[in-house]
Amino acid sequence: MVGLGYVGLPLALEFAKAGFRVIGYDVSERVVGLLMAGKSHIQDVSSAELARMVKSGKFEATTDESRLQEMDAVSIAVPTPLAKTRDPDMGYVIAAADAVGRNCRPGVVVVLESTTYPGTTRDLLQPKLEAAGLTVGEDVFLAFSPERVDPGNPIWNTKNTPKIVGGITPACTEVATALYATCLDTMVPVSSTETAEIVKLLENTFRSVNIGLVNEMAIVCDKLVIEAAATKPFGFMKFTPGPGIGGHCIPLDPHYLAWKMRTLNYKTRFIDLASEINSEMPAVVVRKVTQALNEERKAVNGSRILVLGVAYKRDIDDMRESPALDVIRLLEQQGADVAYHDPYVPKFSEDGHEYASVPLTDDEITRADAVVIVTDHSKVDYQRVVQLAKVVVDTRNATAKLAKGKGRIVSLASAGSFANA
Ligand SMILES: NC(=O)c1ccc[n+]([C@@H]2O[C@H](COP(=O)([O-])OP(=O)(O)OC[C@H]3O[C@@H](n4cnc5c(N)ncnc54)[C@H](O)[C@@H]3O)[C@@H](O)[C@H]2O)c1
User: Which of 198, 219, 324, 348 would be 118's cystine partner, CB 3.0–4.6 Å?
Assistant: First the structure.
């Protein structure tokens, strides 16, 4: 397994559980050190299980690239971020492909797991293997298989989520499918690496576009309209509005497709529009805070604002691309004194500024001029927040069913509503 993050580590352990001897190769000394000490850095992987695998010799982590020479099968799960210009940053995939190419030998199957634009496996990986004098489909087998992990999901995990696999040749698909079928429940072979690559982008674009739609609806109508529409038992799928999108997937992946299509002179309008609406949501939240403070005859400038939840979604510790970062930045730009509380994120740094989670004491809640719920972690006692806070801006509908407190609750989809359901 090349890359031992949110995707690579759980998959490595599935292979180890299926009886394979798995070596995880990662460029991070810190990650490898932690894993070899039996400490998991991924919330969905228990340290006890990891330690068992390390002790039994089924799993080993290393920073030594030459260990790839021992492998019969290599899966690559390295980051695929966007550059500042919002173009794909393929640096990690290219570095990993170089390492695999340098250490490959006949008989090996190589599978790329990183989310990417259609054409990556054929255009970037195949030449690296062929530079080693190996013919893909004959000497070595190359495929793309997108990871669908949903961190924190208690039902769907690496093992029971159906797995798409598409090879460069039919033999590549067959070999890669046979490999993954040893440890995953359901395999879905598709016709090519490009098909497998675009399947993943469609899945995440579907989410981005639907979230964009409900976010726009949240601006124009009451949240109960969405609840009412969701009672339709067919032809409607409920998405909930929020403060913006975060994580390593939804905010980034659709841009991989948009970028690829731009190179082919096609403009992906749905992707661009959804991205525009979703990325405006933190500013919508800050407008709600400004309006709420205004009604109290207060300005954002000089107000104490307590942000509840900075991870990008409920009950996880991942802050990548979290909309909370934008909400905090925009509030601070207007002169607010911002504190945050997140039971999963004790501290973080952004733009050279260090932030530390404050304890959620009664004093902290009453001291704030406004409390903004950005992420609705289930560990937080929202009833106490509502009871004590002067103003609560609730972007996640976390307070909908609670008894009213002394302060006002402003929800994302309410003020300026077009319709009241
Ligand atoms: N996190 C998710 O929920 C999720 C879900 C589906 C797909 N994906 C995709 O999977 C891929 C990996 O994402 P992730 O969340 O696991 O990333 P991550 O940042 O958690 O982990 C990536 C790991 O790769 C290592 N790495 C970087 N360059 C390397 C190299 N050249 N050789 C070896 N190791 C290297 C890093 O040190 C890190 O430990 C991305 O393409 C992402 O879009 C992520």
Answer: 198
Burial 204-236 (b: 16+ CB within 10 A, else e): bbbbbbebbbbbbbbbebbbebbeeeeeeeeee
Distance 8 CA to ligand 1 centre (A): 7
Looking from the CA of residue 116, the nearest atom of ligand 1 is 41
Q: Whose CA is nearest to atom 15 of ligand 1?
A: 6
- Any alpha helices (H) in 61-161, and if so which ranges? 91-102, 120, 126-131
Probe residue for ligand 1, chosen from 1, 89, 111, 147 as the CB with the greatest number of ligand atoms within 8 Å: 147
Tokens of 250: 């939804």
User: What's the predicted TM-score (pTM) here?
Assistant: 0.91
Q: How far is the CA of 114 from the centre of ligand 1 (A)?
A: 7
pLDDT along the chain (421 residues), means of 10: 96 95 98 98 93 97 97 97 91 98 96 97 97 95 94 88 98 98 96 98 96 92 85 94 93 95 96 96 96 96 98 93 97 98 96 95 97 97 95 94 86 59 40
d(CA 2, CA 122): 18
Closest by CA to 398, choosing from 380, 371, 376, 420, is: 376
